[in-house]
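Researcher: We're reviewing a set of sequences before deciding which ones to prioritize for further study. For each one, I'd like a predicted 3D structure that I can look through quickly. This is NudC domain-containing protein 2. If possible, include the structure in token form so it fits the rest of the review sheet.
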Amino acid sequence: MSAPFEERSGVVPCGTPWGRWYQTLEEVFIEVRVPPGTRAKDVRCILRSRHISLAVCGQELLQGKLFDSTVTDEGTWTLEDRQLIRIVLMKTNRDAGNCWTSLLENEYAADPWVQDQMQRKLTLERFQRENPGFDFSGAEISGNYSKGGPDFSSLEK
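Model: Here's the predicted structure for NudC domain-containing protein 2, in token form for your review sheet.
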């Protein structure tokens, strides 16, 4: 079986002071750099539908209202190599038109170029899902791809 679309096509990250975040049609990934040697018991991570809170050794690193809603029971966090916390949030709205422009409601916004690249990638991911026999991971897209691009679902097959 071939690798998932996001592995073949890469990610479009949005850099932040603490790390980066990126998204797919279904998920939002948050990577937070923490001091080497951090242990899981030093981490306090609270994930709710529209809210996130992350503290390490009592220091708040990330806290606020998420850009859009997520599925609370499907959010996870892991500590990797005792120096990186990876948080995975499952989007409630999983269509290509739901491209988050920022991680939090008023913070960590993607710059216009990164936002454009994120939207292009989500549109190609949507095309891949709608046409499983084709590989869109290396495709270029131009034209109207905002809000998920054109809708071809009504065309006869």
